[in-house]
Amino acid sequence: MTSDPYGDVGALARLLLSGDRQALAKAITLVESTRADHQDSAALLLDLVATGRKHKQPALRVAISGPPGVGKSTLIEALGLFLISKGKQVAVLAIDPSSPVLGGSLLADKTRMNLLSKDPHAFIRPSPSSNFHGGVAVATSESVLLCEAAGFDPVLIETVGVGQSEVEAAFLVDIFVLLLPPGGGDELQGLKKGVLELADVIVVNKADGDLENLALATAASYRAAMALTTQAGMKTHKVSVLSLSALEKKGIQSLWDTIEIHHHSLVKNGQVGSKHDAQAEHWFWQSLEHQCIEQLKASPRIRKITAQLLHSVRNRELSGRAAALKVLSSYLPNEK
Ligand SMILES: Nc1nc2c(ncn2[C@@H]2O[C@H](COP(=O)(O)OP(=O)(O)O)[C@@H](O)[C@H]2O)c(=O)[nH]1
Ligand SMILES: [Mg+2]
Q: Which parts of 64-200 fold into alpha helices (H)?
């Protein structure tokens, strides 16, 4: 026995690959750890897990994105239970940059996913931090792989549709589902700017009660807008638009059918592999960037240099840019 709970990484990897959910939870905690002495264990674990899975099919990875309150968690509960009824094992990674882990929103999510979170065929895990970028985003990309290695397929990712987190989420998945409320011409404006490039499926939620007709009309107008942008050559792949009610569990089957159609066409065109290759490259650069900063900050030698430079920066004797270049050239002394 070692005092480090992650000492026996080989055993952890084996347990995880056998589908042990406690091992999965522990493995995710390890890749999320910012402790310097956990970094090598995390890297080893990821390699062992990747080797253990080498010839297996990757899991289908789906992002469910959209503004707060649109019904992402409610939809994931409905979709998750539907998939479990079809014999699947479902993992959910919830990234909510608007709420700290112990904040209200996560508690609310737990109640929204009440049945799913108790189901033995589901694994639900919130993101550890309010900052979905840098190390957190990298760890989430690794968590996707760990869920897949533990036998979960599909892996669903709940992410709030705000700015950069959405773009990062697109690097985690095969299929990007954008959930929108009924009405909301503003959302269409937003769509035109960025998300349009990301979405494979646009879903208008809350098609029930008084909102049903509005939801149908909203879906029709998005459909028309999508047809226009496709005609104009702004988008290279087809976007599906549908409406449903997550609350009343209406339209869940047709959402899943749509997701599968998109996924099949990716597989058929050989695009899944190239997508995963590009994503692996993206997460490599993210990881390198993040680890460079962390190691620079942690190095006593660099800290000493930085302290001296900062004095000059604060006095405006040296520009921030020049100071940063000096730090780098002392870190990479042979490059110049
Ligand atoms: N009428 C209606 N309300 C819904 C639907 N889906 C979610 N809601 C409600 O919208 C609110 C926010 O839902 P939640 O799933 O937490 O949204 P999230 O922030 O996107 O995860 C809750 O009060 C839900 O009950 C739906 O299909 N119809
Ligand atoms: Mg939610």
A: 72-85, 104-112, 114-118, 134-149, 164-170, 185-190, 196-198
Instruction: Return the structure tokens found at 98.
Output: 């608007």
Q: What is the position in ligand 1's atom list of the atom closest to the CA of 245?
A: 27
Please tell me the distance from the alpha carbon of residue 191 to that of residue 204, in angstroms, as a whole number: 13
Residues of the chain with pLDDT below 70 are 1-7, 96-111, 128-134, 161-164, 184-196, 230-236, 333-336
Q: Are 150 and 118 in contact (CB under 8 A)?
A: no
Could you tell me the CA-to-CA distances from 201 to 151, 204, 222 in Å, in that order? 25, 10, 11
- The pTM for the full model equals 0.89
Helix (H) or strand (E) holding 61: strand 61-66
Burial degree of 70 (CB within 10 A; 0-12, 13-18, 19+): buried
What atom in ligand 1 is closest to the CA of residue 67?
A: 20
Asked whether 6 and 30 are in contact (CB, 8 A), the reply is: yes
Cα of 164 from ligand 2 centre, angstroms: 18
Strands (E), the chain: 61-66, 90-95, 122-126, 155-160, 175-180, 201-204, 240-243
